[in-house]
Specification:
heterodimer, A: alpha/beta, Glutaredoxin, two-stranded antiparallel ribbon, 5 helices, elongated, B: alpha+beta, 4-stranded antiparallel beta sheet, 10 strands, globular, disordered C terminus
Chain lengths: 176, 662
């Protein structure tokens, strides 16, 4: 008779363990249908005359690339920018950016203040190209190999712990 | 300065919560009246300080103080005042402060209105309530402090998500939280009763009004949210089985079961252990909802900025609160003596059927919500279940539930005869069948499930009216009928209206899903399309400035049988901060259905992409929900709850002279 009274807590504990495992797993790794696939074909105009346009050709045959989708109006983008600046110091990866639904002047002000690690910045005012990339919020970051295939997608800001735990090991592994 | 006062008020509230969580509990164990008496002033003080913190945060939003991170990242100086205020709870940190404020408010209400509770029991209830507040205050201060400053101060804020700039959504979260958090009272009552090891009809009588108040708020909150989704998102749907919608729906289902099982405890002094378990589970599901929304463990369109660190904290808290209370339940519940067995055909028998079906339904929703997580943990795959899953599991459970809802209220307590009761509802049965046949004829058949839905809706409405007619003895003639109607107890009104409202909502859900007519096409100005028997002529679009957006508005002239009927002006708004496009559907509700028009983007070939729908009985869903909530309010103000002793005496009196108890 009394074992029945323990049933609810038993079920709950199993659930709690599942929640805990789930918490560790998919915090920010949302698998993209595009991981392992070639990048979409696109050609974005330059953000302004201080940079150049960004096209899918940039991502093929030029070693590892990192594509960051950002906007000046997005607070988490501000938070992750120091990490991007740090990645910009590396020689084995080229950083590109897609400026998502933004005012070019504000985007430039953002980069003037926080630094510009990008080799090229494409402006995507309507978000059309970002849709092809499978972006559903800013910031998002993609790592692309020399064959132009997406090997990793990071949803949300790259925080210092993400840099250490995921991005840097990935770049080190893919570069060697 | 204001931010620092708010921060300090939260810290003081934390200190008061710590005292309230411990002193009265110790007092109750040691029989120390002084410590027990501290519970009431402490509960009021806790609410006062959280109110102060909430007031400070609201002030910061109203004056647009962008030196505070939370305001800078969620508000903008060009925003209308209403949305500056609703911006307070439109983000993770602010909504937590609202959560704690409502929690403390409920605690203070129990302290102030709970004069009829025994002092020891009240002390324990308030202590348990404060333990929950303690956890949430710690969570706020340690991981989600809304009062942090920002340096340098930005010139302007980042703006509130335009989708959230809507009156429906401004009031949706407060109602939802009133519901979620309101169930904490039932939880605290259950835990206090387990500590005391005693559950009796008086307990059920105390806990019911609080559960009912929470249920009413949650009913309105869910209805507002679904109404907002319907007219603001422009998808034309009203319920998507999204994890966060489910997070609010599960406590509602469990809370509905709790309301009904508490009646059995009150009237028949049995089903106690189950009712206690339901009280714990209902609030646990509210906490689980909070966890799902804020931890990022399940992705949803609603999710707040998810942060695993916060997720770990809430999960730990969840384990402490839910695990702790269920452990207490496991130890103490066997001590609650079960009541006698019941007859299957009796009021309590029907209420048990209600409880079993609602509990299983809650379970199916829980399973569907957690399915992506379970699949991920078990097989590493990511998937999710959609409406087809719910159509196969949840909907079939509702069919026997609604059938039982028509019969249950007519059954007598203890023992009844099914044949006699069925003879009393023959009218409902015949009408339900008749309407379904007529609809089938008019619609050339239609999906079988839709016809079943129509029959069920009509059945429930008529059966509820039969109950009402019997209660006011309609067949005794008109003499004195007005007096009999006026004297009908609020509880009976509440039951009849809540059941009837569900019937109305079921008709709306069925008809709008099964017989919707839609046209999606590119229209050039001057073109006409016919939808649902109405002719829509597109007049073209004009630009329109707004307070913090620019918009284009399209115009449709709607006529019916050649006569002008309505003008629909759907809008598409372009917000600058943050840049985003929202659609404002133009909706003209009529009694028999909604005309719904959306104007989208300009087509490259000229003309505009438009969507026009006719949604039969669409608004019945929300009218039904409003009737349910209104019924709940009538029941809440039933005099029975208000005056403890006198009402109990009256109840005893009415039982002895044989008025059917309800």
């Amino acid at each position: 008779m009394t074992w029945r009274a323990f049933l609810p807590i038993g079920v709950f504990l199993v659930l709690a363990v599942a929640l805990f495992v789930g918490l560790g797993r998919n915090a920010s790794i949302v698998p993209s249908a595009l991981v392992g696939k070639p990048v979409p074909t696109f050609a974005l105009p330059a953000l302004d005359d201080q940079t150049r346009g960004f096209t899918s050709a940039d991502l093929k045959g030029n070693g590892l690339s990192l594509v960051n989708v950002f906007a000046s109006w997005c607070a988490p983008c501000r938070a992750e920018h120091p990490q991007l600046m740090a990645l910009g110091q590396r020689d084995d990866v080229t950083l590109y950016a897609i400026n998502y639904k933004d005012d070019p002047a504000k985007a430039r002000a953002f980069l003037d203040k926080l630094g510009d690690p990008f080799a090229a910045i494409g402006a995507d005012p309507t978000g059309r190209v970002s849709i092809d990339w499978g972006v559903y919020g800013v910031p998002e970051t993609y790592i692309v190999n020399a064959r132009g295939e997406i090997i990793y997608k990071h949803v949300g800001p790259i925080m210092p712990q993400d840099l250490e735990a995921k991005i840097v090991p990935l770049l080190d592994g893919a570069g060697s | 300065m204001i931010a620092e006062i708010g921060h300090y008020a939260l810290v003081l509230a934390l200190a008061l919560a710590l005292l309230l969580a411990t002193l009265p509990m110790i007092g109750a164990a040691r029989n120390d009246t002084l410590l027990m008496a501290a519970a009431r002033p402490l509960a009021v003080g806790l609410a006062a300080f959280v109110l102060l913190a909430f007031g400070c945060l609201t002030t910061l939003y109203v004056v647009s103080d962008f030196s505070v991170v939370n305001v800078a990242s969620n508000s903008h100086s060009a925003k209308p005042l209403l949305y500056k205020i609703s911006g307070v709870w439109g983000n993770h940190e602010g909504s937590l402060v609202l959560w704690v404020f409502i929690l403390a408010l409920f605690g203070a209400s129990v302290a102030l209105l709970g004069g009829n509770l025994p002092a020891r029991f009240r002390a324990r209830v308030l202590s348990v309530q404060a333990m929950i507040a303690l956890g949430f205050l710690l969570f706020t201060l340690l991981t989600s402090n809304p009062f942090l400053r920002l340096d340098p101060v930005p010139a302007n804020g980042a703006g509130l998500n335009p989708l959230l700039q809507d009156p429906g959504l401004a009031f949706h979260p407060p109602f939802l939280y009133l519901g979620y958090v309101g169930f904490s009272v039932a939880f605290s009552f259950a835990v206090a009763a387990l500590i005391e090891g005693r559950v009796d009809p008086a307990w059920a009588r105390w806990v019911r009004p609080w559960t009912l108040a929470a249920w009413i708020a949650l009913t309105f909150g869910i209805a507002l949210g679904s109404w907002w989704a319907y007219y603001e998102l422009g998808w034309g749907g009203w319920w998507f089985w999204d994890p966060v919608e489910n997070a609010s729906f599960m406590p509602w289902l469990a809370g509905t079961a709790l309301l009904h099982s508490a009646i059995v405890v009150e009237k028949r002094d049995t089903l106690k252990s189950w009712t206690i378990l339901l009280a714990i589970l209902t609030f646990s599901l509210s906490l689980l909802g909070t966890f799902i929304v804020r931890s990022g463990v399940i992705t949803s369109v609603h999710a707040f900025a998810s942060d695993p660190a916060r997720g770990v904290f809430i999960l730990a808290f969840l384990v402490l609160v839910v695990g702790g209370s269920l452990a207490l339940y496991a130890v103490r519940a066997p001590m609650l003596r079960p009541g006698g067995l019941f007859q299957p055909v009796s009021r309590e028998g029907a209420l048990v059927v209600n409880n079993v079906l609602l509990a299983v339904a809650t379970g199916t929703v829980l399973l569907g919500t957690l399915y992506p997580l379970i699949e991920d943990v078990v097989s590493g795959q990511k998937g999710s279940v959609g409406p087809p899953y719910y159509a196969l599991t949840f909907v079939p459970l509702m069919i026997p539930l609604i059938v039982a809802m028509g019969i249950g209220p007519l059954l007598k307590w203890k023992r009844d005869e099914l044949g006699a009761v069925l003879r009393r509802v023959w009218l409902a049965f015949v009408l339900a069948l008749g309407v379904a046949v007529v609809v089938a004829y008019l619609q050339d058949g239609g999906p079988v499930m839709a016809l079943v839905g129509v029959a069920l809706g009509v059945w429930l409405i008529i059966a509820s009216l039969v109950k009402w007619a019997e209660q006011v003895r309609l067949t005794d003639g008109l003499a004195g009928l007005g007096r009999r109607i006026r004297r009908l107890r609020g509880g009976v009104w509440g039951m009849v209206l809540a059941h009837l409202g569900l019937g109305v909502a079921v008709l709306g859900m069925t008809a709008s899903t099964a017989w919707e007519e839609a046209v999606l096409q590119v229209m050039a100005p001057g073109e006409t399309v016919s939808v649902g028997g109405y002719d829509f002529t597109f007049e073209g679009v004009t630009p329109l400035p707004g307070p913090n957006y620019t918009a284009v508005t399209g115009r449709f002239l709607v006529s019916r049988a050649g006569r002008p009927f309505a003008v629909l002006d759907p809008e598409t708004r372009y917000y600058a901060e943050p840049p985003m496009t929202t659609t404002e559907a133009a909706i003209r509700p009529t009694l028999w259905g909604d005309l719904y028009a959306v104007v989208g983007e300009e087509a490259r070939t000229g003309g505009w992409a438009v969507r026009i729908y006719f949604k039969p009985l669409q608004h019945w869903i929300w009218w039904g929900a409003a009737i349910m909530g209104f019924g709940g309010l009538l029941s809440l103000f039933d005099r029975r709850w208000r005056v403890g002793v006198a009402a109990r005496a009256r109840a005893r009196e009415s039982e002895t002279i044989g008025v059917p108890a309800t």
